[in-house]
């Protein structure tokens, strides 16, 4: 079992996440039992015109946060595939980092489910929520 810790999380980001996610400068800031918090700074890669976070970047942050939460379900880090992702965008934010707080809803043998809330780091305003279904390849 590959234990996921805060100390090796940056290495996992670079090994497990694709380049488009790495380009967003996402950082893992907290890990718990079936939970993870990730931060994404406002940047040219993450924001659209007007300095507002792009929906694509928010979806990548949400998916990544849920993956990290799933890897903390007690079974360690292993390959995971996103089966379904629903993102609800509630407010456009810019000029501050976003924080994604993810938690496992149900961890099954072949499918697991997670949810995430994404808030502005400075304002605390809720920017988006997401739920996802994830498959554990055989």
Walk me through the structure.
With 138 residues, the protein is α+β, with helices and mostly antiparallel strands. 20% of the residues lie in helices and 37% in strands. It has three helices and six strands. It is globular.
For the terminal residues, how far apart are their CA atoms? 15 Å
Measured as a percent range, the helix fraction is: 10-25%
N-to-C series of helices and strands: HHEEHEEEE
- Helix tally? 3
Q: How many E-type strands?
A: 6
The helix/strand class is alpha+beta
Question: What topology emerges from the helices and strands here?
Answer:
Elements: H1 9-16, H2 19-22, E1 27-32, E2 35-40, H3 55-70, E3 81-89, E4 98-107, E5 111-120, E6 126-135
Antiparallel strand pairs: 1-2, 2-4, 3-6, 4-5, 5-6
Q: What's this entry about, in short?
A:
The protein has helices at 9-16, 19-22, 55-70; strands at residues 27-32, 35-40, 81-89, 98-107, 111-120, 126-135.
Defining key terms:
138 residues; alpha+beta; six-stranded antiparallel beta sheet; 3 helices; globular
């Amino acid at each position: 079992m590959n234990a996921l810790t805060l100390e090796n999380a940056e290495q996992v980001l670079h090994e497990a996440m694709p380049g488009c996610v790495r380009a967003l400068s996402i950082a893992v800031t907290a890990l718990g039992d079936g939970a993870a918090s990730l931060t994404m700074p406002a940047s040219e890669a993450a924001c659209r015109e007007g300095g507002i976070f792009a929906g694509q970047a928010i979806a990548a942050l949400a998916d990544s946060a849920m993956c990290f939460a799933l890897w903390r379900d007690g079974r360690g880090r292993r390959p995971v595939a996103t089966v379904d992702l629903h993102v609800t965008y509630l407010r456009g934010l810019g000029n501050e980092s976003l924080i994604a707080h993810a938690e496992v809803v149900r961890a099954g043998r072949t499918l697991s489910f997670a949810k995430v809330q994404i808030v502005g780091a400075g304002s605390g305003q809720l920017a988006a929520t997401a739920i996802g279904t994830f498959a554990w390849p055989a």
